[in-house]
Amino acid sequence: MRTGERGIFPAFYAHEVIGQSKELLGMKRNPAWIETFSVQFLGSVEVPYHQGNGILCAAMQKIAISRKRTVHVRPPSLCELEISLQGVKLIMSLEDEYESLDEYDRCSHFFQMKNISFCGCHPRNNCYFGFITKHPMLNRFACHVFVSQESMRPVAECVGRAFQEYYQEHLEYACPTEDIYLE
């Protein structure tokens, strides 16, 4: 209805997958909207609830403690977080020090914005950032934790902005506010 295109599509059961070509994305929407951040992925852990600073901090602490034991064997993975109106794409490099990075040596995970329920930085150390997601089909939640040498506040603000715009756009079409007149 928004675009004027015709046809039937089961939108409830599908979501748009962002392609590899950034040039194509630039034609479809403002390229300034997609933001990429280079960070280190610490890990993910299941959490009991979908939101709250306490849940986020407990997950960060649990991951940090388990990472301290294995950091010498397996250092945190370098990755890129690509944030857009559709969601957060986690692109991890599987590169080792002897081989060059090939396109096939990248692992991607995509979290739809509708499944992201909370995000934020650690209140005492804003170099740590995490977001909580709901499993698409089950009533289970996970917290994904990242770290950087610099403040992660811009990442948290970007996800927050994407979240607000997604829900603003979603509510415009899911719950239109146009007046209905009955005769």
From TrEMBL:
GO CC annotation: cytoplasm
PANTHER family, per the entry: C-JUN-AMINO-TERMINAL KINASE-INTERACTING PROTEIN 2, JNK-INTERACTING PROTEIN 1-LIKE PROTEIN
Residue stretches making up the PID domain: 37-172
Record's subcellular location: Cytoplasm
UniProt main location, coarse: cytoplasm
Domain of life: Eukaryota
Keyword Zinc: no
Coiled-coil stretches: none
GO molecular function, one term: MAP-kinase scaffold activity
Keyword Coiled coil among UniProt keywords: no
This protein's name: PID domain-containing protein
Alphabetically ordered keywords of this record: Cytoplasm
A Gene Ontology biological process term: JNK cascade
